[in-house]
Amino acid sequence: MEMKQISETTLKITISMEDLADRGMELKDFLLPQEKTEEFFYSVMDELDLPDNFKNSGMLSFRVTPRKDRIDVFVTKSEIDKDLNFDDLAEFGDVSQMSPEEFFKTLEKTMQSKGDTQAHEKLEQLEQMMEEALEGEATREPEALDGPETDYVHYVFFFPKLEDAISFSKAVDFETEASELYKEQDGYYMTVLLDIKDQPSYYANLMYARLLEHASQSKKTRAYLQEHGVQLIVDDAISRLQLIKMG
């Protein structure tokens, strides 16, 4: 069993299938929330030497990603801002009183009722661009990375509208380690963390180029957004936004 802290609010715990079996757990146990699963999560947490900011941190959320020979458990410390107050979210009602699940249900309902034709057109364009990118990838000249080797690489992207962030998420068809969504005065920002361990040296630049086909480069850093922005989605923003139906 192995633990890595991939952000200030997220831990990644890797558990082998053998460790899982030793604890009397199977993959099917994670399909539906149940007391057995919750007890398993917290027993694992008790065994690990948690970072100080995760000890007695209150509500934690768990996300399980099955792999071929293991499961990855992402543990996220809840830090939902209670003072959301944006003009473009006004029609959602009192979002400060919403749970994350209620926020997404309201967002989905609002977008469906709008029937935003521009969003549909944007999504079609993004899908076409992704197909063209995949077709042309074989002839793309990769750029080598500079600096020391690392297991992870981190990007920040900008979106003028929330719909753009949703369309971006729907266009991402490869695995990401973590992603967050922030709101700032001029728009929305998404951070994306990729695991580049055991990948070729040009992999990080290649993935960045692919992602930029569906987003704009951010002039603001994650550290700036953590201090000045409002974090709308703490972890797994891409997967959660992919669930939103537009129109």
UniProtKB/TrEMBL annotation:
Q: What is this protein called?
A: Adapter protein MecA
Q: What does this protein do?
A: Enables the recognition and targeting of unfolded and aggregated proteins to the ClpC protease or to other proteins involved in proteolysis.
Task: Describe the family membership recorded for this protein in Swiss-Prot or TrEMBL.
Answer: Belongs to the MecA family.
User: What is the species of this protein?
Assistant: Streptococcus hyointestinalis
Membrane-crossing segments per the record: none
InterPro entries from the UniProt entry? MecA_C_sf, Neg-reg_MecA
The lineage's top-level taxon is Bacteria
Query: Annotated Gene Ontology MF terms?
Result: protein-macromolecule adaptor activity
Pfam families recorded: MecA
Instruction: State the domain notes.
Output: The N-terminal domain probably binds unfolded/aggregated proteins; the C-terminal domain interacts with ClpC.
Give the quaternary structure: Homodimer.
